[in-house]
Specification:
CATH superfamily of the largest domain: Gcn5-related N-acetyltransferase (GNAT)
Radius of gyration: 20 Å
Protein name: Acetyltransferase (GNAT) family protein
InterPro entries: Acyl_CoA_acyltransferase, GNAT_dom
Number of strands: 15
Organism: Paenibacillus cellulosilyticus
Order of helices and strands: EHHEEEHEEEEHEHEEEHEEE
Largest sheet: 8 strands, mixed
Distance between the termini: 30 Å
Keywords: Transferase
Helix content: 10-25%
CATH architecture of the largest domain: 3-Layer(aba) Sandwich
Pfam families: Acetyltransf_9
Number of helices: 6
Length: 299
């Protein structure tokens, strides 16, 4: 069923996470459209002031949404105030009324003075939508390298229990003072998004490296070691780290961020199908180099 109405009559409601009725309606829409839910994240106190929903609400029901997440983006060593756009969705019954477009215009106008860069990730079904709002597409790269012979296996690593409140708070504490994992294309101030992934996606893949006071997110899948993030106040010796987390079957290291330290040793291939990075900037950004936005920063 498609519901048609006068698009000039709707109102946009923003930043309503403490309104239980609207929050649950938003969660239901997110679950229906993307199969995700934000309630556990909210109840744990990690839905912070940086993640803000902007929604069309009809009869106390969220029918369309565009969210923003405030963070700092590091591009080629330079800090940029950034707004990442995400959770763009409309209830199937209300599609075709221009709601997503109206919300995009609202968000871009509302935050134009608060950032230098807007960016987002979009799948191939909506690649034609975002250029209408001044966004330019960029193809990210896959970075991988051959694994070196291991010398240490899991020495000094302890798996984090994301059901344990003390462990969660330790992660959050380290996040607040983190050094960006990349100075080529990195992120800071992304505690909220990281904790969402910790609670919902990577809860069995997060480890504490005691002697470095670092959080490591990784998975060994067959002969591939997937390294998703390294969170620390200090620069972590990645070569040493890889010797800790590789196993005897590891042949390839797959980085899910831009691995500055290994630029000369990695294999670089442009990504094929999947999410595409879109950027809208006040200045001419140089994004001509190979980059991979940290996966755990995707809103």
């Amino acid at each position: 069923m498609s519901i048609q109405f006068d698009a000039s009559e709707f109102t946009i409601i923003s930043d309503y996470k403490n309104d239980e009725i609207l929050r649950k309606s938003f969660n239901q829409l997110a679950n229906d459209v993307f199969g995700i839910d934000f309630e556990h994240w909210f109840q744990k106190g990690f839905w912070d002031h940086n993640y803000i929903c902007h929604s069309v609400v009809i009869n106390q029901q969220v029918v369309s949404n565009v969210s923003i997440n405030k963070m700092n983006l590091i591009i080629d060593g330079t800090n940029q105030r950034a707004i990442q756009i995400g959770t763009v969705m409309t209830h199937p019954d209300y599609r075709g009324n221009g709601l997503s477009g109206a919300l995009m215009k609202h968000v871009l106008e509302a935050y134009q003075d608060e950032c230098e860069v807007f960016y987002l990730f979009a799948n191939d079904s909506v690649h034609q939508f975002y250029p209408k709002f001044g966004f330019a597409p960029y193809t990210e790269a896959n970075f991988s390298m051959k694994a070196a012979p291991i010398s240490i296996v899991n020495n000094g690593l302890r798996q984090i229990d994301c059901a344990n409140e003390e462990d969660l708070q330790r992660i959050n504490k380290i996040l607040r003072t983190r050094t960006p994992v990349s100075n080529r294309f990195g992120i800071s101030d992304n505690q909220g998004i990281f904790m969402f992934y910790a609670l919902n996606v990577f809860q069995d893949s997060i480890y504490l490296m005691e002697d470095e006071e670092a959080i490591i997110v990784y998975r060994n899948e067959g002969n591939v070691l997937h390294l998703y993030d390294v969170v620390s106040k200090y620069k972590v010796d990645l070569a040493r780290l890889l010797s800790h987390i590789s196993n005897r079957d590891t042949e390839t290291i797959q980085f899910h961020f831009t691995p500055d330290r290994f630029t000369d040793n990695v294999n670089v291939e442009l990504k094929g199908q999947g999410d595409l990075l879109f950027v809208k900037s006040k200045t001419d950004l140089n994004l001509s180099f190979a980059l991979c936005a940290p996966l755990l920063s995707h809103a």
